Sequence to fold (207 residues):
Amino acid sequence: MARFGINAERAFGVSIAQLRPLAKHLGRDQHLSLDLWATGYHEARLLAALIGEPGKVTPEQMDAWAAAFDSWDLTDQTCLKLFVKTPHVFPAVERWAADEREFVRRAAFALMASAAVHLKTTPDDDLLPWLDLVETHASDGRNYVKKAVNWALRQIGKRSLALHAPALALAERLAASEDRTRRWVGRDAAKELTDPKQLARLEARRT
Fold:
């Protein structure tokens, strides 16, 4: 786990693949989710994210959990499996992107990436302002932040043809930057967004 950048200080070594069947067996249970999170153990917190009830999650809970994030996998799984299903996505993205703490800021962009995929009924125009946040924070050189910024840019650009053009324009602008981190974020995103297979998928989705 440590080799993959996961904080193993309070971990048992149980994989997410082993936790998923247990989460399915338990079902959604907000009370148990909160109790598991309170233990402070890595896998217990992953399980907490898998069984939490999105409708009962409050902005205060989201902020408290985000403040406790200490690993990229916990950050990403919580955003992907729980937070993106709440009605609090857009305000959380704004708050967390402005936060200087590494994993809190990562959570903002992990939540963006998750929303770009899973919030299928949300109008594309609602996601456009997120590209401004991507541009603002693309110079954050911290490893776990820059990778999440890149992830968000790619997922927004792959969501639809309408979002592809502005996302690719931003990627190309970042790729031409003199800043090393912005250049990496832009070049990597542009490579995926100009992949012919990806463009074909977007065209097929439109039809």
In short: The chain has a mean pLDDT of 95. The two ends are 43 Å apart (CA to CA).
